Amino acid sequence: MTDLFKKYLLADHSTRVQVVKLGHAWRTGMAHQSYPESVEKLLGELVSAAVLLASNIKFDGALVLQLQGDGPVALIVVECTTDLSIRATVSLREGQEIPEDGTLQSLLNPNGNGRFIVVLDPDREKTNMQPYQGVVPLEGNTVAGVLESYMRGSEQLDTRLWLASNPEYSSGLLLQRLPRHGGSAHVDDASADETWARVSHLASTIKYDELLTLDADELVHRLFWQEDLVAYEPQEVRWHCPCNRERVGNMLRTLGREEIKDLLSERESIEVLCNFCGKPYHFDAVDCAGLFADGTGSPSEGKPSIH
Questions:
Q1: Which residue in 146, 193, 228, 230 is deepest, having the highest Cβ count within 10 Å?
Q2: pTM for this one?
Q3: How far apart are CA 107 and CA 38, in angstroms?
Q4: Pick from 44, 42, 49: which is nearest to 72 by CA?
């Protein structure tokens, strides 16, 4: 079964192991988005990374990961809420060629101005916490390398990540050494060091293709069958973008009756694409007339992306 996140804890409580594998959710997200293979691969890896990291947030809200660059890829952004709902998108620069063998650095950071941005966005209705944003240079040759560097430098947490993606699946494995407080206070440094070195070595034997072909239980068993692990209840991951036809209709209504009429004089219908997930919405003349059935027709500030 795909679209599951699973968490395990080493018996000495010094290290956590987390695995995610997305199938249906990943394919749903890409159903209305089309990117070159090298770009889609980076996006898929960042999606699994977001799930692995968002699962450890201690508040209701969302984690947003952004790769922002000066190359042919302007922005890759993934949002994962604490209930493990995800959405993601990419912004490409017009007129710039995407190489088939494009890498993180060549696609996003050819001139050294790329940035990795982490946003912790608490739910304003459930918490009094303020949003937090961390920005660091885009250092590393892979998505996993960028995230490991960020976690080590900004969060002071030893973290190892293995990420993989193809058109069918997005998956990832995370190891994280826990600080010596709470449940791990009884573990001495030497023992924790030994555990970390051992499980890191075991995890590093995983191959890229194995992340994509093995389910979470089989992957963990293959790597850590000699370890004593405490397993937590698995969590389902789903793709969710809040766009819907009603919201799009409300955006069109803000254009005003006359502008909608002018647009329809140039084309048979209006096509609106969600700027985040790419889902298309079709409004013909009858649909547009229904937007103003209540007699309103005054424009306001926002404008949707119309194609």
A1: 146
A2: 0.83
A3: 9
A4: 42
Q: Which residue in the block uniquely carries the two structure tokens 């937090």?
A: 132
pLDDT (tens digit, 9 = 90+) per residue, 280-289?
888 888 888 8
C-alpha 307/C-alpha 298 separation (Å) is 22
Tokens of 131: 């949003």
DSSP string, 192-237: HHHHHHHHHHHHTT--HHHHHHS-HHHHHHHHHTTS-EEEPPPEE-
Given phi > 0 = left and psi -120 to 50 = alpha, else beta, which region is 249? alpha
Tell me how far CA of residue 103 lies from CA of 43, 197, 266, in angstroms.
12, 29, 42
Identity at 280, one-letter amino acid code = P
Task: Compute the mean pLDDT over every residue in the chain, rounded to the nearest whole number.
Answer: 87
| Positive or negative: CA dihedral 160, 56, 45, 119 | negative
Name the H helices within 127-215.
143-154, 189-203, 208-213
Cα end-to-end distance, the chain, whole Å: 38
Residue pair 49/41 in contact by the 8 Å Cβ criterion: no
Tokens (6 digits) for 181:
């407080």
DSSP 8-class letter at 131: P
User: How far is the CA of 181 from the CAs of 14, 54, 178, 219, in angstroms?
Assistant: 10, 21, 8, 29
Q: Taking the CA atoms of 215, 220, 226 and 231 in sequence, report the sign of the dihedral they define.
A: negative
Q: How many CB atoms lie within 10 A of CB 220?
A: 21
pLDDT of residue 294: 67
